[in-house]
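worker-03 picked up job from queue 'complexes'. Input manifest follows; two sequence lines, order preserved.
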Amino acid sequence: MARYDEKLLIEIEEREEEKIEGIERKELNIPNLAEREVIRHFIHLSQMNYGVDTGFYPLGSCTMKYNPRILEKIARNEKINYVHPLQSEKNIQGCLEIIYKLEKMLCEITGMDAFTLQPCAGAHGELTGLLIARAYFEKKGERRKEVIVPDSAHGTNPASAKMAGFDVIEIPSKQGMVDMEALRSVLSDDTAVFMLTNPNTLGIFEKNIVEIAREVKKKGALLYYDGANLNAIMGITNPAIMGFDIVHLNLHKTFATPHGGGGPGSGPVGVKSFLERFLPVPRVREKNGKYFFDYEMPDSIGKVSYFYGNFSVLLKAYAYITMKGKKLEEVSKKAVLNSNYLMEKLRKAGVEVPFYGRRMHEFVVSTKNLNIRAMDVAKRLLDYGFHPPTVYFPLIVEEAMMIEPTEDATKETLDNFSNAIEKIIKEPSEILKNAPQNMPVKRVDEAKIAKKMILSWKDLKKS
Amino acid sequence: MQKTMKKMLDFIGIKSIEELFEDIPKEIRRGLNLPEPKEEMEVEEEIKKILEKNKSFFEVLSFLPIIKPHYIPPAVEEIVSREEFYTSYTPYQPEASQGLLQALFEYQSVVCELTGMDAANISMYDAATALGEACLMAERIKGRKKVIIPSNIFWHKKSVLKNYVKGAGIEIIEKKYNEEGLVEIDGGQADAIYIENPNFFGIIDDRYKEILEMKEKNDALLIVGVDPLYLAIFNPPSFYGADIVIGNGYLGNHMNFGGPMLGIFACRKEFVRQMPGKIIGANDEEKLCFSMTLQTREQHIRRGKATSNICSNEALLCISFLAYVSILGRDGLRKIAIKNMENAQYMAKKLEKIGFKLPFKRKFFNEFVSICPMNAKIFNSKLLEKGIESGLIIDEYVRNGILFGVTEMHSKNLIDECIEKMKEVIENDGKI
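worker-03 finished. Artifact:
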């Protein structure tokens, strides 16, 4: 990775100011730069950034798979870039067709009966799904107040439940899985939804899922599938047959659309047929080969985002699924093989795997038994040229490192990564604590940054 | 079986991949009924064929408002196409993400400059969800469970807002607008008052003194919805007392059939700990460096008590926004803003010449309402037959009112050509 002392944009020498008369606003501290200087600035910044194309990026829970270039090419098209969302239906038939067909594809992959593509990210999908659940119970005249989540759940689950107006009940895990006793003890007529990721955040498949679904339904509650880990099970099983009623997917994880440095993502929500009437408007329908918007949905929750979702992301996912077709199954198989292989490698290297057993597409190790901080290993991995795994998550494992290699990692990459960890855990603690050494900056003191509160270049000038 | 796979299976100590899935009960196994895989070339052709059915701005001229076509310099697309940016994820490891972090810090800085606020996050999904989050934030600060909004906001936005505040039980009170197209701002005991500038009718709200006085009287937070280009030439919301500023960060980003969009979110420093979303901070001791900051507000740490559930955001669109602003610079931005305003005024005048009427007498930026001299629905569909998408009909606000959006891409020549066709429609079908 390159190292530059890259100036801030406001520190770069400006071109001459022009006189612009007659405007209300006098002060505007945005620099006038030559295009050449701007391009150099951003090229330098890009060279100080690690992406999937830079190297192995086994960030657990995030499914950092390769983003095929064809997806980018397809999305760079005037026929999308310069298409307005409020154009008349006859001039947007292409977009409507993509939406309609992608919904059908996602129905097939998840087993659900209907999808909305409107949510812009996974957490946004969760909120949408829970608002649907809320509308469903309101329609039935029930006021169920509680959402149950396991203590291993993604933080977005309880946060979304709270936003949708539910009380959150967290249940402890047992052997890394849902504790049936704990679940039974909190399920009640007040339970609206049980949210679950399967495989869960430890990478373990919740094999009691059929029984879980039965218990949840016995109480008249709904079962929600957090689709963050769908990459493990495509073509093997699906959320519908497991008994889930509502599903969100993360197209930027499972279907190879780029993560964009944090977004845009896309979080479509699928439901079983009895919940379809509550989906956001508009729905896209087809009649005699013509596609149209349907706003006539009196029970719909309304809208969750400005228009119809992150369309260019949807298009990329459509292209990816079309390319893979039924071979999506092999994506999952390879992802699971890579994950188990790497787990065995690390285990043989002396790294502890809590709740050891088969894993799906990801796994969690702990560095606690080695008396090493997971964060130190993560930082040292940077010196070896790897992006570190997710650290300190899930919360139920101390000194956790959550590793998801995805189907794209070659055996050679997995071996190299494992060898690096094997070396690192034997290195003197001095080296680990002072890592990284080979990055553009030394270890960043995040606590100090939180304390200083320098949040824009205005603050910098003051300090 | 491939040799490599065999080696991997041997190492794990199993005979087939199938064994890895033995935790999944047989009764819930289900295969995929999808077509055979396709070659890249086939997929590209197939999708091209589908998208051919769309008509872009270059084929069918449009005056639709809210998001609009803008010229984006190629340099912006080059910058945002750098794979180090777009194939990376949320910068959880700051040492490996200094480039992205610096760019996002600069984005925050530019948003702070434009809005006059002290802090900005690195995006919400769009302006509608940003408004929802802003109202939730105001409620956390004031605890009154009541927000006041103008009745004239785009109904999509209103619908999203309702969904966002439902869980918190916040009541939304709609204020009627007057004959000038502006709402009388009087808050009462609310968490927040929301205004837009320019507003949904395109009108510039320059009642700065009144807004400030009202704000001081009411003690409610002032949330202002803005257009970032407008801010290049008009006073920022900080000038009239804004506490939170939201907006649609379309600069440098294509329309893309309405998504992804970028939701701008900025506020005054005293409220920063109540902000939703991710924020980048800097340390200027020794070498300048950056990381995400104040993360204890966020869902991955605070879970059910987080300020928002947002995780994935629209970070890449922040980069194109920043790149656009940097390439244009202060002067370029101002010139584009002036051009937008001039073209819109030109269009409005031309429309008046063929019988349209402006219902509001206030100054407008690059959107405006004009009353169609004939039934607006018939007008729009007849115009469509001539290959032009008119503006958005807003009958529910102004009878036969059409909301037009005009940018630097609607040159005077294009407008003239279009006005000719509009005139034909009115002459031929105006009696219907």
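worker-03 released lock.
The first helix of chain B runs from residue 3 to 12.
The longest strand of chain B covers residues 192-197.
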